[in-house]
UniProtKB/TrEMBL annotation, chains A, B, C, D, E, F:
<dbReference type="InterPro" id="IPR018191">
    <property type="entry name" value="4-OT"/>
</dbReference>
<keyword id="KW-0413">Isomerase</keyword>
<protein>
    <recommendedName>
        <fullName>Tautomerase</fullName>
        <ecNumber>5.3.2.-</ecNumber>
    </recommendedName>
</protein>
<dbReference type="InterPro" id="IPR004370">
    <property type="entry name" value="4-OT-like_dom"/>
</dbReference>
<dbReference type="InterPro" id="IPR014347">
    <property type="entry name" value="Tautomerase/MIF_sf"/>
</dbReference>
<dbReference type="GO" id="GO:0016853">
    <property type="term" value="F:isomerase activity"/>
</dbReference>
<feature type="domain" description="4-oxalocrotonate tautomerase-like">
    <location>
        <begin position="2"/>
        <end position="61"/>
    </location>
</feature>
<dbReference type="Pfam" id="PF01361">
    <property type="entry name" value="Tautomerase"/>
</dbReference>
<comment type="similarity">
    <text>Belongs to the 4-oxalocrotonate tautomerase family.</text>
</comment>
<feature type="active site" description="Proton acceptor; via imino nitrogen">
    <location>
        <position position="2"/>
    </location>
</feature>
Length: 66, 66, 66, 66, 66, 66
């Protein structure tokens, strides 16, 4: 442990950005909680904007209204 | 908060149905728990029927046996 | 299926409110997606306000600042 | 990886039963998917019976009706 | 209940392997915790190797370095 | 969005450490993905060491063997 699950909307996040999220989140857990990187798992799950709701509306609709 | 994760099988649920799930779930959390819609997140994750098991069998197999 | 995970802050939500969340969420999934109540699972997880962050602060801190 | 999350009702499951769930689930992932035990994480989360709903009712109510 | 979520990397796991994971995990929960298979849900979520990090690196990078 | 779930063993992590995890994770998501802090939710779930398994053993057992 730890296990970190990062859920974000499917917005074409690049492999480099994902790698940086994983690197920096692991580093953060080492710095703050002194965790062992070797047993630190980070999982990024990407979600369609039709499948994510905030304030009762889909992110698709919220973005269209901007 | 709150955060609600709805996992369903990948059955071609329409954008309209997803929007209604998000609208109605948010409304429910406002009605029952007086939550702020602006900080209420709903995430729908769709799962292949090969990847969902009930009673020890995949949903694909259960449906084929019907 | 479906499986619904509802995460809320630990604010003394009553057994009656939880029962209503479960009843109404199940009813919603029947109405919108025609799901079978018998295989519809709802899980409510309560989270301490020190353990929930919005806008970079804990809910404990956000509430104290109000 | 993998990461396995096992959610069960809070029914006084013993430390021995938890250890057996963890041992056997890991063994299963090695056997079926040839996974490395050293990077296989199993997390058991226990949920109050008021907080788990099936068929629109809490497990507390379902058990009381038996 | 129970509900089991199995997260694995997207490595072309076959339908047969998924069915065996579901069968054996359900059997395990019956054996160790005497659970009812009919209300035992198993969900397998597959994650791209760019989206899974261990020891601060993506599985894609870790595998490339082998 | 995003929503981040951080699962760690129940090791007496202080309120200050939790606040720093939340602050730094939010900052990271702003820096790497340009996310809006106001809609960024971080949830920390603490798990008993009997309930977390690595390499087929509970963390309780692994620590006792050190």
């Amino acid at each position: 442990m730890p296990y970190v699950n990062i859920q974000i909307t499917r917005d074409g996040v690049s492999a480099e950005q994902k790698a940086e999220l994983i690197r920096a989140t692991t580093e953060l857990l080492v710095r703050v909680l002194n965790k062992d990187p070797a047993t630190t798992h980070i999982v990024i799950q990407e979600v369609d904007t039709d499948n994510w709701g905030i304030a009762g509306q889909t992110v698709t609709a919220l973005r269209a209204a901007k």
